[in-house]
Amino acid sequence: MRELRKVEGKSGSSILNQFISLLLSLSAFLFLVLSTSVFSVQFSSITLRKKKVKK
């Protein structure tokens, strides 16, 4: 918290920039996790269908 206060004392815009960059990285990480989970679900459903077809 002390570091944040020092940065804010220097310039309020820098804290805003840090917050925006944090949000962007967080959203990118969430997008990555979502895409990988969706891909794995689709992949598993495809393999299940193939198994059913084989039976």
Descriptors:
single chain, 55 residues, mainly alpha, 0% strand, rod-shaped
Would you give an account of this structure?
It is a single chain. The chain is mainly alpha-helical and 55 residues long. It has one domain (2-54). Helices cover 95% and strands 0% of the residues. It contains 2 helices and no strands. It has helices spanning 2-10, 12-54. α1 crosses α2 (12-54). The protein starts with a helix and ends with a helix. The model has no long low-confidence stretch (mean pLDDT 84).
Could you provide a short overview of the structure?
With 55 residues, this protein is an all-alpha fold.
Percent helix, as a range, is: over 70%
Mean pLDDT: 84
Unreliable runs, pLDDT <50, ≥5 residues?
A: none
Summarize the helix and strand pattern as letters. HH
Beta-strand content: under 5%
Distance between the termini: 61 Å
| Main sheet attributes: strand count, strand direction, barrel closure | none
Count the E strands.
Answer: 0
Structural class: mainly alpha
Strand-helix topology:
Elements: H1 2-10, H2 12-54
Helix pairs in contact: 1-2
